[in-house]
Amino acid sequence: MAIDHLDGRIILLLAREPRIGVLEMSRRLGVARGTVQARLDRLQSNGVIRGFGPEVDPAALGYPVTAFATLQIRQGQGADVRAHLATVPEVLELHTTTGSGDMLCRLVARSNADLQRVIDRVVGFDGIVRASTAIVMENPVPLRIIPLVEQAAEET
Amino acid sequence: MAIDHLDGRIILLLAREPRIGVLEMSRRLGVARGTVQARLDRLQSNGVIRGFGPEVDPAALGYPVTAFATLQIRQGQGADVRAHLATVPEVLELHTTTGSGDMLCRLVARSNADLQRVIDRVVGFDGIVRASTAIVMENPVPLRIIPLVEQAAEET
DNA sequence: CGTATTGCTGAACAGATTGCCCAGCCGAAA
DNA sequence: TTTCGGCTGGGCAATCTGTTCAGCAATACG
Predict the structure, then answer these.
(1) Do the Cβ atoms of B95 and A62 come within 8 Å?
(2) I want to staple B82 with a disulfide (CB 3.0 to 4.6 A). Which of A103, A140, B12, B43 is the partner?
(3) What integer pLDDT is reported at residue A144 of this predicted model?
């Protein structure tokens, strides 16, 4: 579960050049191919590397507007609300949280006007008491993992 | 920029079996290899598919705690705060938003206790007036894109 | 102090895939 | 009607993958 420096470099390489093969990696890292292969297998069965799915940009798909909605749920309706939100394609992510809200979800929409439709669909459900939405203007730090990987690899 | 049904199926296939090759995809989809290759190239240069970087699980790296922090920034300090937050590895994502807060960021930490350290580091910066943090308990809908891709592909 | 275990190396092999090229076909647009 | 873009089906050399093997060093263990 802890990763060492070599694991870190493997992940870094993959992040920078995803199409790179095991053989080329072993050349760059100066280790045997079998080693890289074994490390990769281990990282994947460990769950450190979940997969290599394509990263799809919602904006390029026609959904340039992102928003975060904080939802307050009526007691005991949590499961229903989760199931409801899971059916809305524009809900990209849903968390239950501590704090003033009960859930936090990430939404996308085709436009600010379309966001209204999405929100209506999200909150148009019985268990949701209140929703407060924050529209994303800029994304100075896109979802990233590299710095954390580097830190985890160094701490070994 | 709009994707058709074939594009959608390509993305779906890639999402389900990321290690699949172009040749195998063409077999499954019943089209020529060149077609799949051309579609893939187009999707990538379009920016619809950003890449195939490894999806790393912070929890497996030893950071099982996720939180969202809403930050209020002192007027005119936005750029400095952004630069500051970008240097914190535990900040996985940062958005500037409309609404009561000014920024929303996703944090991870090694434990609830460690989260305190992370938050101290995040807010220990001059331009940040106030921070309110929500710890994630459950993640009923992990970051996903498939339903949106399906919707976008059907609307053609 | 021996001994088993684990991880890495370097190598080999057949089989599959990739990148690239081409000619032909077809539907849509000009 | 002509042109153009997209898809097909094929072929080629080069490369990579999956897998296996023996040797070696460091480590853990009895």
Answers:
(1) no
(2) A140
(3) 97
